[in-house]
Design a protein that fits this description.
Layout lengths: L28 H21 L12 H18 L3
Length: 82
């Protein structure tokens, strides 16, 4: 009786290595991020609550730009937080 052919097995390929997990953020990162977000918001609130005279009287509406800049720094930190 004829024997059936055996299947040729391919060479062994090991499973791909898993990528290392990204390191977590340092413990000071989250408090600094939240502080920047709150500080920027407080800066803008003070500007409008003081009838646009404070925190820096001489620069006028640029106070809003400074406040949003601080908020954006906190937001950028939030996107990189792990």
């Amino acid at each position: 009786m004829p024997e059936s052919r055996t299947r040729k097995q391919g060479d062994f390929t090991p499973p791909p290595r898993k990528a290392k997990a990204a390191p977590s953020s340092p413990p000071w990162y989250a408090p600094v991020m939240v502080t920047l977000l709150v500080l920027g918001l407080a800066y803008i609130v003070v500007f409008y609550a003081s009838n646009q005279e404070y925190p820096v009287p001489g620069i006028g509406a640029w106070n809003v730009v400074i406040g949003f800049g601080v908020i954006m720094a906190g937001f950028i930190m939030a996107t990189r937080w792990r």
